[in-house]
Structure formats: structure tokens, C-alpha cells
Design goal:
Blueprint: H1 14-17, H2 21-37, E1 42-43, H3 51-57, H4 62-65, E2 72-75, E3 78-81, H5 86-102, E4 118-122, E5 125-129, H6 140-161, H7 199-207, H8 217-230, H9 237-246, H10 253-268, H11 271-274
């Protein structure tokens, strides 16, 4: 079995309530293993198992499994469990046998005439569907019953619907036959790329730019090249433009004339002679 069926009154019985937590946990581990093996709640030859074998099969030690109490006891070479649901195990085995005989997974053995299987027509053949098929787990039978009901409803709808109507014809306009092959689409013309400027042309354009009037561009280029060589860096065009933007422009003749007139005015004013 893939599940363990425990009644609620079992967990309130004196045998379970009166046991300590360690024995309760051992009992549940043994119950799970017996439900998986479907051995009727009896571990045959368990008293002779080694401690490692107990841990690998049931997850408990040998001392814990063979310490007889109200929940489990050693009977000769076997370990017998209290409260194991033998009736449920037999019911599951009977369902499995019925399903194997009828070629369907799950199901429930026949009990009365009202629960006889119902024949369902499918492609001129008959298959039997049990009205109350159940699996091993709780709720499995209800799920399978709903699936079978939906499947039967779908089959009835297909039988009553009849053959499907053919699709409506669609008028197709005939293609005009011509002796000339179809014209190829014209390729878009690409804009030719402008040739890249050489270093000499680029420096000449910088020297002619109004932004760098008064700067000796070739001289600044030589200074920037030496600066990059000492620092083992590459002089790119962007770096040289940044260099020119930070370069100081020389003073013009107008600036010198202005400075001279200021000095001459300062030396020849009357205010300095009067001391004001």
C-alpha cells in the first residue's frame, strides 16, 4: 500500500496514549514499513535482524524495535504490531485483483446487483466501467468516477452529433499566366561611405577650425605625443582634442596694448600726485 490508514480511535486508545513518545515513533515507523510490504502487521524474523538491517528497512534501531510494549511485541522470531488495519489491507488487495482481471487500474469488487459494471459502446466494442471504482488512496475513487463520467458523456455527444459537415468551399481566383518572369525587387542603394581623413588632413582641419585660433596645432600635437610616450599611452584623436581644449592660448597684441595703456594711465593720472 502507498498509504497508512489509521482510525482516529486508534490514536486515543490506552495502548497509544500510555506509551512514551519514543515507542510511539517506533510504532509508526514499523506500521509504515508493514503497510508498504502488506505483511499483515507482522515483521517475520525481525527478532533475528541485525541493528543495521532494522535501520535500513524501518529507520529504527534493533533495541527500539524489539523492546516489547503495548504497541508492539516480540513473538518468537517475529515482531507483531498492535492496531494494524488488516481489513483495509485485504480490501486493497481485493480491489487490485479485480482491476487486474478487468484490465483497468483501480476499481472495486462487485458487491450487489445495483453495482454491476455498466457496458459502454466504443467503436462497436464493449468495455466495462465499474460505477464506484476506487484506488488505494482516499478520494481516488471519486476522481476516477468523475473521469469515467466525463468520458462517457463525451462518447455520447460524439455518437449523437453525426458526421461533421464538410468545410465551405472557398473561391480561388486563378493566377494569370505570363511568359515573362516576375520582376526582381529593386535593391536599395547604399550611401557610399566618406573616405576617412588621414592624420595630416585631420590636423589641418583642426588648425583651420575657429575653435583653436591662436594655437599652434602641430606644436601641441608634438607635445601631446611626447606626453603619451613618456607615460606609455596611446594618443587618440579624442585625447588630442581634449588636449587642445585644455591648452592655454597665447596673449594677443590687443591684450598687450590694453595692459600698456593701463600702466600709462596709472603713471600719468593726477590723483596719485595729490595723494588722493
Amino acid at each position: 500500500m502507498n498509504w497508512l490508514n489509521l482510525r482516529t480511535e486508534t490514536l486515543h486508545a490506552p495502548q497509544y496514549i500510555g506509551s512514551d513518545p519514543t515507542r510511539r515513533a517506533t510504532w509508526i515507523s514499523l506500521m509504515l514499513w508493514c503497510a508498504q510490504q502488506e505483511n499483515g502487521g507482522i515483521v517475520s524474523g525481525g527478532a533475528n535482524w541485525s541493528d543495521r538491517q532494522w535501520q535500513q528497512t524501518c529507520g529504527v534501531t534493533k533495541d527500539e524495535a524489539t523492546d516489547s510494549c503495548d504497541l508492539f511485541r516480540v513473538d518468537g522470531a517475529d515482531v507483531v504490531l498492535w492496531g494494524y488495519n488488516v481489513e483495509k489491507e485485504a480490501e486493497v488487495q481485493e480491489r487490485r485483483e479485480w482491476a487486474r482481471e478487468n484490465g483497468r487500474k483501480g476499481g472495486r469488487p462487485r458487491k450487489s446487483a445495483s453495482e454491476e459494471p455498466t457496458p459502454v459502446s466504443e467503436n462497436n466494442q464493449h468495455r466495462y466501467q465499474h460505477p464506484k471504482a476506487e484506488g488505494e488512496g482516499e478520494g481516488e475513487g471519486e476522481r476516477k468516477e468523475n473521469e469515467n463520467r466525463n468520458e462517457k458523456k463525451k462518447e455520447v455527444q460524439e455518437e449523437t452529433a453525426g458526421p461533421a459537415s464538410p468545410p465551405a468551399s472557398v473561391a480561388v481566383e486563378p493566377l494569370a499566366l505570363t511568359s515573362e518572369p516576375p520582376a526582381k525587387p529593386a535593391k536599395s542603394k547604399r550611401t557610399p561611405k566618406q573616405p576617412a581623413q588621414t592624420d595630416a588632413e585631420w590636423l589641418a582641419s583642426l588648425a583651420a577650425s575657429p575653435a583653436y585660433v591662436g594655437l599652434d596645432v602641430p606644436r601641441e600635437h608634438a607635445k601631446a605625443s611626447e606626453w603619451c610616450r613618456v607615460r606609455q599611452q596611446t594618443l587618440s584623436r579624442q585625447r588630442f582634442v581634449n588636449w587642445l581644449n585644455r591648452a592655454d592660448k597665447p596673449l594677443t597684441a590687443a591684450t598687450h596694448a590694453t595692459d600698456t595703456s593701463r600702466r600709462r594711465f596709472a603713471n600719468g593720472n593726477d590723483y596719485s600726485a595729490t595723494g588722493l
